[in-house]
């Protein structure tokens, strides 16, 4: 029978997997406590970084419906549970790993889909959600301006065409 403390740990980890929209598994071997503290700060407010036991975390992930991470639970493992913008946390992990090569990104899960370490690094290269939304709004505004200019040009072009036809008819009428 499972010990109550282990059952509670599995239940807590299961809740974290269910309540986060992304989870990134890392190997932290060789990092000091001060470096781990710095890493937690670099992840932002919407992420929790926790050193975990592989067996318990594997059970919790499976209970949360995530079985794609099973192969990544080896060696010293820590998980970044992301509840906000996953791009911000991925950037924090990538930048920290550049300065501290002892941090190894193993892989993770985003909205229930497995991600390799390379895919997480590509995610980190994306711009933040706010920047992407601003660019999209700018593109929509630009298209609206183009549409308005086109709709304004049509009547004026029609008037110029009608005036040219009248002038041509007057010219032909005066020539006869």
UniProtKB/TrEMBL annotation:
GO terms for cellular component: ribosome
Keywords, in A-Z order? Ribonucleoprotein, Ribosomal protein, RNA-binding, rRNA-binding
Cell membrane as a keyword of this entry, yes or no, is: no
Q: Give the matching InterPro entries.
A: Ribosomal_uL10, Ribosomal_uL10-like_sf, Ribosomal_uL10_bac, Ribosomal_uL10_bac_type, Ribosomal_uL10_CS_bac
One Pfam assignment? Ribosomal_L10
- Which family, according to the similarity comment? Belongs to the universal ribosomal protein uL10 family.
Q: What does this protein do?
A: Forms part of the ribosomal stalk, playing a central role in the interaction of the ribosome with GTP-bound translation factors.
Instruction: Summarize the subunit comment.
Output: Part of the ribosomal stalk of the 50S ribosomal subunit. The N-terminus interacts with L11 and the large rRNA to form the base of the stalk. The C-terminus forms an elongated spine to which L12 dimers bind in a sequential fashion forming a multimeric L10(L12)X complex.
The protein depicted here goes by the name Large ribosomal subunit protein uL10
Q: Which gene encodes it?
A: rplJ
